[in-house]
Design a protein that fits this description.
The protein is an alpha+beta fold. Helix content is 47%, strand content 12%. The chain is globular, with a radius of gyration of 21 Å.
Length: 431
């Protein structure tokens, strides 16, 4: 397990010394073993379980909220921020979104406290320069635009265009924001059950967190347009991982997924055909060299299932939410995974929704089965969550009981005013 739960983008440098796959008698078997060995790392459970949080924000010029900041401005702003007191890293996404990623803390209350402290420092640093940050599942108002010139993101955009999912790919990269909850893998003997329960919980988490009914000023009817964007890209790299044994399932998923790009020194080349990684290993691809272990490790960072093993477990299916709500959502998620009583009850409630990802994202709590499961999950979480965060979870439970989410509140505000006003209001909150 890494020292910090951060989904950092690896360097664009290609490591020629990573040649395990080049020297293996059976590269496909070596690749499978490498993926399985790195999928999960055993860790203590119970009271010693650690939690890391990652929260993304849309960066907004408070004087001109309809204008997307330039890349030069984003660099200046990010570079001028003071160190985060809780040790969170600050990274920049393709559309200029900022992300705070906390170190792992024991328990969700400590992790939330760390993110809140760093969030305040981020807000103050941006406000001094006339900017704000809005934690919303999508940018509700501004046109979709990639401004980060990283070679990785240029190649991603070209790959998505070649595979006929350019619009969704660009929106996913440049106009969405998430709350990600990272958890220890726990004891080895519980991995299969643990991952299965987290995946089954996913549709309820999607529905409860839905906070993206508008994207670039348009409404598609989906309660989570962020999830709609993810659903619109290549399903081989965005659908849930299927299979019983977590490591083997992840290996099959990764080897079947198409290669997005190839790195050679400073050069990054997008792959404009559907080339499964296993085909590259077998030499049955147009790529003019064999893959290394470094290529395989990088390939794993281009796969985006809603629950992803990275040594620890990433829960990636939550919309970013306003500051009033994201601590409660983090507490809810952790309670339904880590507390045995809450987890057992959630497993019963969520079993009928195991494959209802699209229904949950499109219809949200308006779907009776989704609402029934979500209400039950939130209800048990109010009794079993961290005491420090219980008031927020209770407020979220009241909202869910009425069949509503934070996204419904934002949609109503946008109807009374307009999407850019909502974006600006959320960016100013707390400033």
């Amino acid at each position: 397990m890494t020292a910090q739960f951060v989904s950092a983008v690896p360097s664009d440098q290609h490591d020629e010394s990573a040649d395990e796959l080049l020297t293996a008698a059976d590269p496909l078997d070596a690749a499978r073993r490498h993926i399985i060995d790195g999928a999960l790392r055993e860790s203590p459970g119970g009271d010693a379980a650690r939690v890391g949080l990652e929260l993304e924000f849309h960066l907004v010029d408070l004087a001109e909220p309809a204008r997307r900041p330039s890349w030069e401005q984003v660099q200046q702003l990010a570079g001028g921020l003071p160190p985060m007191p809780s040790g969170s890293s600050v990274t920049v996404e393709p559309g200029g979104q900022l992300e705070l990623s906390t170190p792992p803390e024991v328990g969700v209350a400590a992790s939330v406290a760390a993110l809140l402290a760093d969030r305040r420092v981020l807000q103050d640093g941006l406000a001094a320069a006339g900017f704000g940050s809005a934690p919303l599942g999508t940018d509700p108002a501004r046109p979709v635009q990639r401004i980060n010139p990283s070679a990785r993101y240029v190649a991603m955009e070209e790959h998505f265009a070649a595979l006929n999912c350019a619009r969704s790919g660009k929106a996913m990269m440049s106009a969405t924001a998430a709350l990600q909850v990272n958890l220890d893998a726990g004891p080895r003997e519980r991995w299969t059950d643990r991952l299965g329960r987290i995946r089954a919980l996913g549709p309820v988490l999607v529905a409860v967190s839905a906070c993206s009914t508008l994207l670039a000023g348009e409404a598609s009817g989906w309660h989570s347009m962020r999830q709609e964007a993810w659903h619109g890209i290549d399903h081989s790299r965005s659908d849930p991982v299927r299979g019983v044994e977590p490591g083997a399932a992840w290996a099959s998923y990764a080897l079947d997924a198409p290669v997005m790009l190839v790195r050679d020194g400073e050069r990054v080349t997008p792959v404009r055909q559907r080339v499964p990684f296993r085909a590259w290993l077998r030499g049955a691809s147009p790529i003019d060299r064999r893959p290394t272990t470094s290529d395989l490790d990088y390939h794993l960072t281009t796969l985006f299932p809603p629950v992803r093993p990275r040594g620890y477990v990433e829960i990636r299916c939550l919309d970013a939410l306003p500051d009033r709500w994201w601590p409660a959502l983090a507490a809810l998620t952790v309670a339904l995974v880590e507390d045995d009583i809450a987890s057992d009850r959630a497993a019963e409630l969520c079993e009928p929704l195991r494959d209802a990802w699209v229904t949950a994202a499109r219809d949200g709590l308006k779907d009776p089965a989704v609402h029934r499961a979500a209400f039950g999950c939130v209800e048990v979480a109010t009794r079993r969550c961290a005491p420090e965060l219980k008031a927020g979870v209770e407020a979220l439970a009241e909202l869910v009981a009425d069949g509503r989410t934070p996204g419904d509140e934002l949609r109503e505000r946008a109807r009374r005013s307009d999407p850019i006003t909502v974006l600006a209001e959320e960016a100013r909150a707390g400033v």
